[in-house]
Amino acid sequence: MSSVVSPGSADEALEMLTAAMGYLAAADATAMTAEEQARCLRVLERATSVGTAARTSVLGAFGSGQGYSADADYSPRAWLIHKTGVTKGAAVSYTAWVRRAEEHPVVFTAMAAGDLPESVARIVCQWTNRLPEDQRDAADDKLVAAVAAGMSLPELAGLFGEIYEQSRSASPDQDKDETFDDRAVRLITTFAGAGVMSGDLTPECAEAVAAVLDALAAPAGADDDRTREQRYHDALQEAMTRLIAAGILPERAGQPVKVWAHISLADLLRLEGSSALQEEWTAQVRARWAGRRAAASEGGGDAGAWLDGDAAAAIACDAAMAPIVTGDVNVDALDDLVRLCVELDARRRDSTRDAAWAAIEQAVIGKAVDLLSGPGGLASFLRRRQLGARLSGPSLPLDIGYSETIPAGIRNAVTLRDKHCQWAGRCDQPAEACQVHHTRHKADGGPTSVKDCVLLCWFHHQVVIHRWGWTLVLNPDGTTTAWNKDKTKVLHSHGPPVRPG
Question: How far is CA 441 from the centre of its chain?
Fold first, then answer.
C-alpha cells in the first residue's frame, strides 16, 4: 500500500526528499534481506527517472526565465557548472533533457511517472529523432507502450527498425544522410593532460584521415619497434604540428594559433647537465609541477601541455622559448621571515654585530628568496646566468603605464597566469576565447600591466561589465571579486576563509 504526501511548499518537498535519500544512504544495506535490497534498487531506479524529470522541469523554467543572469552567467549550463559544482559533461546532459522534454513529450511524461528508466528514455529519443518530426510522437508512444509491456531493449531496437523502414518507404524524399548528420569528434582531456579521442567520421573524412596517417606513420627503418597504434598516434601529432607551423590556420581572438608547452626551470636546467643537488631540487619541483599539470587537465581551456623529463627536452630542442618568471608566495616562509626580522631587530637593539647577528641576516635573505622569486630574484638570476643564449635575453616590461594597446609580453603573461576567463562567479571559457580587460578602464587612465589586467571571455567583458555595469577587481592574491551596478550581489572567485580549529 502506498500513500502520496502533499508538502506545503517546494522547500518542504526538498527537505523530505533529502531526508529520505540520506536515510537510505546511511542505512546498513548488509542488514537488509535480499528482497528488501531488490525493492530498494527498483524504487531507486524509478526515483532516478522521476528526479531527472523534476530537474528537467525546474531547469527548463529557470532557463526560460533567464534566472542564471542574476549571477552574471550566460547560460543554464554555465550556471550549473559554476554554482552547483557539476562537471561540464553533467551540465550538458542536464540541459539536453530540457530539449528532449520539449521534443518528446510522450517519453518525458512516462519518465516523470517512473514508468520509463532514464537510460531507456534517452535511447528512445535518440532513435525517434531520426524520424520526420510529424512521426515522432506516434513512434514514441508505440515504443513507450512496448517498454511497459515488458519488451527487452534488443526487441525494442527491432521494433524501431521496422518503424524506421516504414517511415523511409513512406517518405523517400525526406530520407537524410544519417552518416553526415551523425558526424562527430570528441577529445576528452584526462589526468596529467593525456587525451582520449573518439568519434564518428563520414566516409570521405575517414579516407582523408587514413591517407594522412598512413603517409606519416610508415616505419622509420628496421629499428623502429613502435606498434601500428603508436605510429598512428605519432603521425597525428606530426600532422597537427605541421599544420600549426604552416601558419595557415585562422587566428583565435586576434592571435596566431600556437601550442603552449610549460617547462619548469628545473627541467630547463637539466638540459645542459645536472648535479646531485640540482637533481634533488628538480625532484621537488617536479612534484609541484605534476600537481599543476593535473589541475590544468581538469580545468579545461588553453592551459597548454605541462611537460617534464624527456618530453620537455624533446620539445625544447626546436621551439620558440618564452621564459616567464613567476612569483609564488609561500605563506609558511612568510611566517618564518617575519619571525626572523623581529629577532634580527631585537638583536640589533641589544648587542653589537656578531656571528649570530650575521647568521640571522643570512636566514632572512634565504627566506626572502623562498617567499618570492620575481624579476631580479633567484629564478631570474638563474635564467640569465645558467640557461645560455636562448633564454638569457632581456626581459620584457610588464608594466608600461597607460597604453592604447596591450603589448605581446603583457598579453602572454596575463594569458599564462589566468589560463581561462577569471570572472568572479567562475567561468570555464578558454584563453583563446577571452579578451584582456583593464580592471580600471583605459578611458579613466587605467594602467597597462600584468597586475592591472585580467582575462575575461567576451560575454563577461563586453556584456556583463560594459553593458550591465558590473565591476570586477583583481585581488592581490590572484582571486577576483565582482559586484553588480546597485551592489545588491557580490561574487567571489574564492571560497570563504577556513574557520580556525
Answer: 29
Residue of higher predicted confidence among 40 and 416 = 40
Three-class DSSP category at 420:
strand
d(CA 207, CA 250): 24
DSSP for 202-227, please give it: -HHHHHHHHHHHHHH-S--STT----
Amino acid at 57: S
DSSP-derived 3-state class of residue 112 = helix
Enter the C-alpha cell of residue 61: 523554467
**429 within 8 A of 420, measured Cβ to Cβ:** yes
CA distance 154 to 407: 61
Query: In this predicted structure, what is the pLDDT of residue 418?
Result: 84
Rounded-to-integer distance, Cα 493 and Cα 219, Å:
50
Confidence of residue 376 (pLDDT cuts 50, 70, 90): very low
Q: Is the pLDDT of residue 73 over 60?
A: yes
Residue (of 379, 360, 382) closest to 371 by Cα position: 379
The helix/strand/coil state of 131 is coil
Helices within 117-254 (DSSP H only): 118-128, 133-148, 153-170, 178-181, 203-216, 228-245
Instruction: Record the pTM.
Output: 0.58
Percent of the chain with pLDDT strictly greater than 90: 21
Cα–Cα distances in angstroms (integers) from residue 348 to residues 354, 355, 357, 361, 362, in the given order:
10, 12, 8, 11, 14
CA torsion angle 441 442 448 449 (round to 10): -10
SS3 for 141? helix
Burial class (CB within 10 angstroms; exposed 0-12, middle 13-18, buried 19+) of 229: exposed
Here the cell at position 418 is 589566468
Neighbours of 358 (CB within 10 A): 10
Residues ≥6 apart with Cβ < 8 Å to 62: 68, 76, 79
Quote the CA–CA distance of 471 and 444 in Å, as a whole number: 14
Q: Is the Cβ–Cβ distance between 105 and 137 less than 8 Å?
A: yes
Write down the residue that cell numbers 546597485 correspond to: 486
